[in-house]
Amino acid sequence: MTDYEVIIGLETHIQLNTVTKIFCSCKADSWFDPPNTNICPVCTGLPGVLPVLNKSAVEKGALLAAAMHAQLRPLSFFDRKNYFYPDLPKGYQISQYDQSLAFGGYLDLPMPASAGRPAYVRHVGIIKLHLEEDAGKTKNVGGERWTDFNRCGVPLVEMVTGPDLRSADEAAQYLIRLRQLLRWIGVSEADMERGQLRCDANVSIRPVGATYLNPKTEIKNVNSIESVRDAILKEVERQIREVEAGHKIEAWTLEWDEDKQVLRKMRSKETEADYRYFREPDLLPIRLTEEWKAEILSALPELPLERRQRFMDAYELPEYDAEILTSERRLSDYFEQAVLAYRGDPKRVSNWLMNEILRMLNERGLTADALRLTPTYLADILRLVDSGQINTSTGKSLVEKVEATGKSPQQIVAEEGLAKVSDDAAIRAVCQEVLSESPKEVEAYRAGKQTLMGWFVGQVMKKMRGKADPTLARQILEELLS
User: Fold this and answer.
1) Cβ neighbours around 86 below 10 Å, total
2) Which residues are 123's β-sheet partners?
3) Which residues pair with 160 in a beta bridge?
4) 269 has a pLDDT exceeding 70
5) Can you tell me the distance from the alpha carbon of 15 to that of 21, in angstroms, rounded to the nearest whole number?
6) How does the average pLDDT of the chain come out, rounded?
7) CA 20 to 30 Å from 135, out of 7, 54, 206, 247?
């Protein structure tokens, strides 16, 4: 049987999080609005109206292009893309064609090691990146086709990769990294369930070692990263069966049925000639001056993969820690601010953040920047533990108390008397009390059950509300039991 190589390219539509739509003053986010209530004569294409370009959409599109290492054009144009579909009220879409906002670009994907394969980086080139307006959406209701125009005119960036991906896992990883980047630079919420990040996958196969490209199929209507992975795997299986049976692969557009986990043919795939592009006569070209470009790019932060590598190099964090801590920008900023305030081992900050802070964020549905437990307060707690003023258990309880009250760790320790007790006489008295109350355990320990020492220390800590110095308590217990 022939071994086949999978060739995948992804087309993504990214909804920019502007306040208003790209060519009118209707609000851009209408997710919770009733159908056909967030519309106006411009976005529904009524006769005689004129579009007015949203400056913020251009700036967010340019920022994304820069983050994707693309080249920004000083002069770009809008075009009309002509096609007829129920949710496209004008009969054409205002898009960009040959002179788009940016060109080129790439995204590198660190792929983890797996069974029999070392870790590697997949370089994914970008062959198209342009601004356009969104269409509406249709759905079947009781055998009828209903249309909602609320989404018409929402600003999008369409981004198309080269045929550079080689597996469904790589395609999923591309979407994970792209979603991370979009949220990191603040241009899109990138929620696939709300259609803020949509993906079509172009899939073909060829014999391993071949350099030519075979006809591809396009998979549409996938609304999650797992669905993209599943749909690609199904289509690869189908294409291999077809080729092995002696059939040719036809360039169809396929629809993914999430509920039944099957692909269906929608229509033959359009070509660019079908769209009859021509310049949009109602819009001036975009002139991206050097001054405007510099202003836009001043908002470009350190990118997540760059920060991930810096965390490993500068702070000597393991790759696992660096990956978690750069998964979201506000969490990453929190970590770095805590490290600067702590002035100690960054790995210690990482451990507390990934265990105590992440648990709190998940339980309360918060982001790191919304915590009352500031990075400085976390550093204060670590220094209190390091200095021996409180023990680790008390430090962990302080995390919750600071978040609940907003008070400083030092204030709570003083008000509640949480400082660690290191007085020999006080701890000795409690140790003697524990031993006198536990004759059976004392007998078992002296008979050789040394593991009971941990239990004795725990009882002392319980009686002293966690404030005893556990090391001193253990020494005193060992002395008394001997």
Assistant:
1) 12
2) 108
3) 11, 128
4) no
5) 10
6) 93
7) 7
Residues of 355-365 as b/e, b for ≥16 C-beta within 10 angstroms?
A: ebbbebbeeee
What is the Cα–Cα distance from 247 to 163, expressed in whole angstroms?
23
Answer whether residue 466 shows pLDDT above 90.
no
Average pLDDT over residues 179-207: 96
| pLDDT over 80 at 423, yes or no | no
pLDDT per residue as tens digits for the range 17-50? 999 999 999 999 999 999 999 999 999 999 999 9
Cβ count near 94 (within 10 Å): 20
Q: How far apart are CA 411 and CA 414, in angstroms?
A: 5
For residues 195 and 184, what is the distance between their CA atoms, to the nearest angstrom? 18
Q: What is the pLDDT of residues 89-120, one digit of tens each?
A: 999 999 999 999 999 999 999 998 887 789 99
The pair of three-digit structure tokens given for residue 438, joined into one six-digit string: 């536990």
Q: Beta strands 217-222 and 252-257: pairing type?
A: parallel
**306 touches 324 (CB < 8 A):** no
- For the chain, the structural domain boundaries read 4-295, 304-416, 424-481
Q: Report the CATH architecture of 424-481.
A: Orthogonal Bundle (1.10)
For residue 246, the model assigns a pLDDT of 92
Checking if the pLDDT of 425 tops 90, the result is: no
Q: In angstroms, how far is the first alpha carbon of the chain from the final one? A: 74
Token pair for residue 172? Answer: 């999923």
pLDDT at residue number 388:
83
The predicted model gives 448-458 an average pLDDT of 90
For 147, list phi and psi in degrees, rounded to 5: -125, 135
Q: Is the pLDDT of residue 271 over 80?
A: no
Of 78-87, 107-116, 235-244, least confident by mean pLDDT is 107-116
